[in-house]
Amino acid sequence: MALVASDNDEVYLLGRIAAGDKLAFEALYRAYFPRLSRFVGRMARSAPLIEEVVNDTMLVVWQKAASFDGSCKPSTWIFAIAYRKTLKGLRASDEPVESDAALYEDEAGNQPEQAFSRQQLQHTVAMALERLPVAQRAVMVLTYYHDMAYGDIADIVECPLNTVKTRMFHARHRLKDLLWNERESSR
Amino acid sequence: MSGRVFRIDIPAHQAVQELLPWYASGQLAPDEVRRVHEHLRGCAQCREDLEWEHDMYADAAKSIAEADALPEGVDMEASLARLLPMLGPQERGDALAPSTTARLPWWRTAAANQPSWLGWAVAAQWVLIVGLVGLLVRPADEADAYHVLGSGVAAGGNLVVVFQPNTSERELRHILQAQNARVVDGPTVTDAYLINVPAANREQALRALRTEAAVKLAEPLDAGGTP
Questions:
Q1: How far is CA A40 from CA A26, A115, A131, B209, in A?
Q2: How does pLDDT run across A39-75, given as a tens digit for each residue?
Q3: Which range in A79-83, A169-173, B217-221 is most confidently predicted, on average pLDDT?
Q4: What residues of B are in contact with residue A14 (Cβ under 8 Å)?
C-alpha cells in the first residue's frame, strides 16, 4: 500500500495528478481511502454509499487537482470535498441526515457531566456518536479520529472558527449525556 | 464543604472548555496552550474533562486499529477498480478550495498563486530583468552622449571653480546665481565644480568669481581661449 509521508508528498502527487498521471492518482487514492471511508462512514451507514461518496470525492480530486492552490493542506482540501459529497450523498439516499438526537442539541449544555471508565467509552462511544447531529458528528470525528486542528476543521465544514469550537463543546456534552444514558439503560 | 471550586472568571473557563479537545491533542497555538495550562492549575473540572478528552483519543486510536482502518463491508480495491475507468478529462485553473477560495472574486483569484497565469508573470518578469541588465551594461559613451545632445557645447561647463572648504551652501548658491551660472558637474574629487555661464559674460564672470573670498580658484575650461 502506498503511503504518503507528508503534506509535501501530497502536494507533489496533486501536481502529478494535475498533469494527468494516473499512477500518482492511485497512490493518493490508496493513501486517502481508509481515512475518507472512516470519515464518511461516521455519517453514512451503508458500505455502497460510503464507497460511492469516497469515489465521488476522489473523482473531483482528479478533475480539479490543477486548481489546488496550496492555500491549505491537501488533506483539508480533500476532506472538504468529502464532507460536501457526504451531505449530498445522504440527501440523495434513503439514509437519514439527522438523528432524533439533533432535537436536543441545545439542551445538552445544562446536563450534569459524568465520568466514565475507558472500558465503557470503548464500547459505547461509536453508538453514541451516531446519535449526534451530522454537523456535530463531523467536527467530533475530525477532531478525535483524524487529529485535525479546529482551523482545518473550520475550512472543511465551511464555518467560522468559533462555530467549530461551540459545535464541539455541545457535541461533547451531548456525547457524555448519551454515554451516561447508555450506561444507565444497560444496568 | 464539598470542595467545589467557585470560579469567578466564567468566560475564561468557557473559552478553555472549548479548547480542551485540541489541547489534549497538542493542536493549539502556543498562546492558547499557555492560557489553558494556567487555567487547568486552578480548575478541577477542566482537569477532569481533560482526562475525558484523553480517553476519547485513546478510544478513537483503538477503534481505528481494531477496525483495520476500514468500515465494515467497504472494499478499497473494488472501489478503485470502479473509479479508474471513469477518470475523464481534467479541469484547468478553476478556483477550487475548501472554503472561501471557492467563491473568490476575480481580483482575489488573480492575487493567488494560480499556475495558469503565474508562468506568464514569471516570464514577463525575466524579460524585464534582462532588459534592465542590458541597459546597465550598455557602453558608457552612449551615456556621455546624453550631455552633448540638444544643448551643444554651450550647455557644457566653461568654467572650473573651487570654493573654500568652509563655504556654506547658501553662500555658494548666491555666488553662482550672481553670475547666472549653472553647475554642470561636480564636486569632483578635488572639490572642483564645472559650471556654465553665458559665453558673452564669461570673462566678466571669471573676474567676479576671482574676487570672491569664498572662491579659491576660478579658471576658464578651454585654457583661456575665447571663441
A1: 19, 29, 15, 93
A2: 999 899 899 999 999 999 999 999 999 999 888 999 9
A3: A79-83
A4: none
CB contact under 8 A, B98 and A62: no
Q: How far apart are CA A139 and CA A151, in angstroms?
A: 11
Contacts of B44 in chain A (CB under 8 A): none
CATH for A68: 1.10.1740.10
Q: Are residues A17 and A83 in the same domain?
A: yes
**Cα B168–Cα B170–Cα B173 angle in degrees, nearest 5:** 110
ipTM: 0.80
Residue A2 lies in a domain: no
Chain A neighbors of B21, CB-CB under 8 A: 143-144, 168, 172
Residue A38: which of B18, B62, B71 has the nearest Cβ? B71
Q: Are A168 and A140 in contact (CB under 8 A)?
A: yes
pTM, 2 dp: 0.60
Q: How far is B63 from chain A (nearest CA, A)?
A: 8
Range of the domain at A151: 100-185
> Does A88 share its domain with A138?
no
Please indicate whether, in this complex, the C-beta atoms of A165 and B18 are within 8 angstroms of each other.
yes
Same-domain pairing of A55 and A124: no
Does residue A88 share a domain with residue A104?
no
